[in-house]
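Example record used in the benchmark description.
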Amino acid sequence: MLTQRDKKRYLRQMIIPGWEEAGQERIKNSRVFIAGAGGLGSAVSIYLSAAGVGYLKIVDKDIIEISNLNRQILYIEEDIGRAKAESARQRLNDINKDITIEVVGEEIGEENIIELLSDMDVIVDCMDNFTARFILNKRAIEQGIAFIHGGVWGLGGVVTTIIPGKTPCLKCIFPEVPPSSGLFPVLGTTVGVIGSIQATETLKYITKRGDLLSNRLL
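Model output (structure tokens):
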């Protein structure tokens, strides 16, 4: 149930036609898994926190480096050397103290994926490698969890929403792991745009409002 504080805080999105209190309650009761707290994960987690998603689980094992700061807007210079997961929790709690944020400083792998995705409603793929993406994709299909994929390279990026049983899966779209050249170019505004679209897709899926980017790759 929404509190009076909730109704004031989320008023501007609740007056979207068809969203209303019922949509906001679905957001408040939702559990979203964010894979990666880098560039995409920063934008996704900020907007989902601000929108009132009740429970966020963020997984990232990396340490903040100065080269992250051009695009990973969750972090500031004083965070360099800290764990991304813990810094992310602190910053997101500053944005919204009414939601629950769980962080896990581990690498996503076959050995922990079942536990990591337990009781999750949506997976938001903010990873930078296809090995982890394919592990998430496989488990999403097996558990019937919606999977919001996003990726960037240089000035461009892609987004698609995968609904198990209704749309092609990630491995259907990318049968093989794309070749990697190691360090890849990326602009902060690019990940901001793609991450914002991923967050929007997540909210549209939860509230059942708007046309999803399913069966198509933006």
